[in-house]
Amino acid sequence: MTSKKRYDSTMTEHISTSLVARSLSAVWHPCSQMKHYQTFPLLAITHAQGVWLYDDQGRRLLDTVSSWWVNLFGHCNPRINAAIVEQLNTLEHVMLAGFTHAPVVELSERLRELAPAGLGHCFYGSDGASATEIALKMSAHFWRNSGKPTKTNFISLQNSYHGETLGALSVTDVALFRDEYGALVRQQATVPSPDTRLAAAGESAEAFALRCADALEQHLQQHHAQLAAFIVEPLVQGAAGMGMYHPVYLTRARELCDQYHVHLIADEIAVGMGRTGTLFACEQAGISPDFLCLSKGITGGYLPLSVVMTREEIYLAFYADQTARGFLHSHSYTGNPLACRAALATLDIFAQDNVIVENRRKATFLNQITQPLREHPAVKNWRNTGMIWAFEVQSPHTDFAQRCFALALQHELLLRPIGNTIYFMPPYSISEAEMTLLVERTLQLVEELSV
Ligand SMILES: *Cc1c(COP(=O)(O)O)cnc(C)c1O
Fold it and tell me: CB count, 10 Å around CB of 190?
């Protein structure tokens, strides 16, 4: 299982293996140009344990991206496995319209206790994008039910990412998506991002965040009569390349949204569940949003589930005799019991293992051992928030991301750079030995890629 066999860069041997060949024939892979798999490695994973993925060639890879930011406590975690198996033998699924069950009730109660104050009502979806859709629809419908039907627009940050369905794309600022799908989308306005990388030379992160909040205020002043909500990724703009910013931006955004009667939607799909060093990123700004979107890590990375949490006042605006005033939205697997049980097991681990405190210790350790990497001349903008680390690499290669991914495989690392940005977002269960391996091998990789 821990064979030292290394990946060869052409991967021809790999493409001839049956699982990969069959996949390329029958499976249309997400977020991919399928033709690139002629030269770009596709990996067939047969099993996984802790931070390690094992492929059909008997090779191992350290999952530094937590399988697209979802895994929290390692693959094949015995406690989450046991919880799912127990639920499986009791109730695998029942529809949530007109029915309820213990896992969804317990999860909603636990989340209400843990979330920022006032978020007492949980509405479930199946993935992150559906949580974004729910929050946007619920916000606009709230204003309509409250006699303000003109409030149907939204704003998001420049370089924002909130998912890829058409509604979510309308508040997502990614050039490629805008170019290809713009005609299908009612694209919404953006306001300047407080991403510290964009600050002026010598300007502090805090001063820059406040300057961006001023720009937000100007926009709100002009457009609030048409605006339903401002949607934001708290503290870290993930898909923008782990753009991190000062929490004062969120504190100001909360004040301004209150002042101009615009909802604040916190998309904590990536940053929630402890990723930024607190259970929810909003805590670091001392704020409570009107809508809190969670997904990804909520089931520990096991099963698709998302939830939008909201306030009593918003819930009550829908509570009436007429059907049309109710929130008209559903998905077949809304509140699936297996997924809710996985989420409950995940919350148990947070409590039993004192995860937030333990993660701080791990982050301190990783920061100590990264000094040689941080000081490498090709490494720029080193940054860290909680259990996320990121930096840009100065490299002559225009195909940096693909080249880095392929080369990292030879070092037993699964790294998935965003442009020239390398990031670490490992499962919280990563050990000190595994962190050391990660940092040493990444340093070698940076050496190889910077020339
Ligand atoms: C991943 C992500 C989404 C979309 O979630 P999916 O489950 O991929 O649809 C939305 N917002 C943020 C911030 C994300 O990171």
Answer: 16
